[in-house]
Design goal:
2 copies of one chain form a homodimer. By secondary structure, chain A is an alpha/beta fold. The first copy, chain A, has helices at 19-25, 27-35, 55-59, 70-87, 96-99, 122-133, 148-151, 171-191, 196-207, 209-216, 221-230, 245-259, 295-307, 321-326, 341-360; strands spanning 39-40, 45-46, 63-68, 91-95, 110-116, 137-142, 155-158, 235-240, 262-267, 284-288, 311-317, 329-333. In chain A, the strands form 3 sheets. A 5-stranded parallel beta sheet of chain A has the order 4-3-5-6-7, with helices on both faces. A 5-stranded parallel beta sheet of chain A has the order 9-8-10-11-12, sandwiched between helices. The first copy, chain A, has a two-stranded antiparallel ribbon with strand order 1-2. In chain A, strand 8 (235-240), helix 12 (245-259) and strand 9 (262-267) form a beta-alpha-beta unit. Chain A is globular and about 55 Å long. Chain A starts with 18 loop residues before the first helix and ends in a 17-residue tail after the last helix. Chains A and B meet through helix 4, helix 5, helix 12 and strand 9 of A and helix 4, helix 5, helix 12 and strand 9 of B.
Chain lengths: 377, 377
């Protein structure tokens, strides 16, 4: 017997032009679903008893290996930042299609975290199987109950994104980020590397995500302008640093997937080592620059883009007049803690891709050549 | 007193149209220089006594962290494959500009290997300093004697590329790869993870690099054809798997740097997770597909590109008729051991970029916006 936990009626567009747009707007509610019942405010802790991994074993785990493909891989890159900074345990991230064909170094003190919306991604399943065969314990982060990945592992942490119809992942991605944030706090508390006070700060930050997402969803004017101004561009660059570098990669992937524009994400600090040669007035650059620990460095990279007459689309704090001055189009985002900036900024890069694709008239929900779940190698 | 170990006259073009082309053709000789005196055939070992790192300490090192920027970062990614497979010690690779602004997890049993042609790259110097401050030992792989990096570390492994004038790195990159191959064997022998027989196989492979490079340099016709056919393209994709995935990244970077064409490198297994949406008859795809452990998988990714009418430039074995059939333009490369395929294939991707840039008439040796050494942050 297969248990279906979603009502078919919920898969309708509910007045939105595309499923992808509906799913973008759904994110605040789905983050609430993913956090629900898992934050223990009184103990400044996370309840992941559902995961069923042994707490004693976890307390002495030596390494996490996060494995995924595509958008989930970018969630894993954010996860590395979250887990290393919050729980202070080393995290390695690998593409499933790369990991499974090397002879990876995995010990019995490794937790292999496999991330996949569908829980059916062939390369990720094979990579997890390989790691477990070498002695690692496996934790799946997936969205589909009773998926192969959920069955063939030691523990499961479900995202509660609900059914995702658009081929380009949106709410599955941000709920993965929320799940990884919970995992980071949980690990930190179990390993004694995170005290109650710091844990409370991170948990409070996670709880502000839905509100911050709602706020960024209220102003759609910048995206319409981006589509009008840059919808015909051949190429885009996306830049970010630190915990927002993976969101630059994800933003570029979204644009590739649904608008067929060649977009590439880059760590902003790498600009000078090559991609800056591409910059001219034809090449829009999307930069993720809310105030955080690397804000000044990002801004100085942006000055270089400006000096080469690059067109700048900047995502940053509403009251950041310096950033506004540099930007051709400015997307204000609410000021939030660094650890949740990836979740909030994701909404902006999703909307950039959506508006450009809709402007171009592509098949947003079923882009050419792509499948929702890649169940072949 | 500063010791200058290069004769100024050697920095002339010697009849080549550009320094970059001269430096591409110089590579077999510079690989010989980098290997010279370091391979101990009778003991199937490597002599890196010059490095002056304590052998006992190295035998129990728990992790290597390879840190670099730009092209050197792609050398580090190849280094991870070489060192993990040959010496069986875990290797983490990080962009210097990312590493230095997180709070990285570094222990006293970590060897931090910083890679930089000039030895003056600001982010890499800062990252190395941070790692050493946290207790790691530092090993510099650099090309310039008495550079800051060579002075401010525990050990130095020099590449012997000679002065590199072209801003886009070529011989500095392949000599870095040779140095990393030597380091892998040296570590494997010291740690007891590599027996004499296996070591001899790898060392023999390294010794065949110059001859294999000479061979690929004899046939320039494919590159002229690529420039004629695809010199006007807006975008390129470069695909590779395993030890050749970083060469896909490096090939794309070369094209970006000197031809100003937006080229992106991708792990071939990730194609289906997004970039395949970009593929049409306008988008040339360069694929690195010599026979090795992931050849079949790469070929099946290529079939998908072909099915979407993508134009294919394939680099592979001379007698590979299946690959020839799929390719619009075929670049034969000599059959060599997997571990040295990155060095040989590098020559092909360098020539692709060079011929396209020369066709377009860009300033090959001094591309716009780029500096030879990035000595600012």
């Amino acid at each position: 017997v297969k248990h279906i936990n979603w009502d078919p009626i919920s898969a309708e567009k509910q007045g939105y032009k595309h499923f992808m747009l509906k799913e973008i707007f759904e994110q605040p509610a789905r983050i609430v679903d993913t956090l629900r019942g898992r934050i223990l405010l009184d103990r400044a802790d996370v309840d992941l008893s559902e995961v069923e991994l042994d707490a004693e074993w976890l307390a002495q785990v030596q390494k996490l290996t996060l494995i995924a493909c595509g958008t989930s891989y970018y969630a894993a890159l954010v996860g590395k930042y979250m887990i290393e900074s919050i729980a202070r345990v080393p995290v390695e991230v690998d593409l499933a299609s790369e990991f499974r064909y090397r002879t990876p170094i995995v010990t019995e003190n490794t937790l292999c975290v496999a991330i996949s919306q569908s829980g059916e991604t062939a390369d990720t399943l094979a990579a997890m199987k390989l790691a477990r065969g070498l002695g690692a314990k496996g934790l799946a982060i997936c969205n589909v109950i009773e998926s192969t990945m959920a069955r063939e592992t030691d523990g499961v942490l479900y995202t509660h994104a609900g059914p995702e119809i658009g081929v380009a992942s949106t709410k599955a991605f941000t709920t993965q980020l929320a799940a990884l944030g919970l995992l980071a706090v949980w690990l930190g508390r179990r390993r004694g590397t995170l005290d109650a006070e710091q844990a409370a700060v991170h948990l409070d930050a996670l709880r502000t995500v839905p509100t911050a997402m709602e706020e960024i969803l209220t102003d759609l004017e910048p995206y319409a302008e981006i589509a009008r101004e840059f919808g015909q561009a051949h190429s885009f660059l996306y830049l970010g640093r630190g915990i927002l570098y993976p969101i630059a990669l994800e933003g570029a992937l979204k644009l590739k997937e649904i608008s067929y524009i060649h977009a590439e994400g880059y760590a902003a600090g790498e600009m000078k080592h090559g991609p800056i040669a591409l910059i001219d007035e034809e090449m829009p650059v999307v930069v993720l620059a809310p105030r955080n620990g690397v804000y000044d460095k990002t801004l100085s990279n942006l000055e270089e883009v400006k000096a080469r007459e690059g067109k700048i689309i900047a995502i940053g704090a509403d009251d950041d007049n310096e950033l506004r001055r540099l930007a051709d189009i400015f997307i204000p985002m609410p000021e939030v803690a660094e650890v949740i900036q990836p979740l909030v900024a994701s909404v902006a890069v999703q909307l950039i891709a959506y508006y450009i694709a809709d402007f171009k008239g592509t098949d947003v929900d079923q882009p050419r050549n792509l499948a929702k779940s890649v169940t072949v190698e």
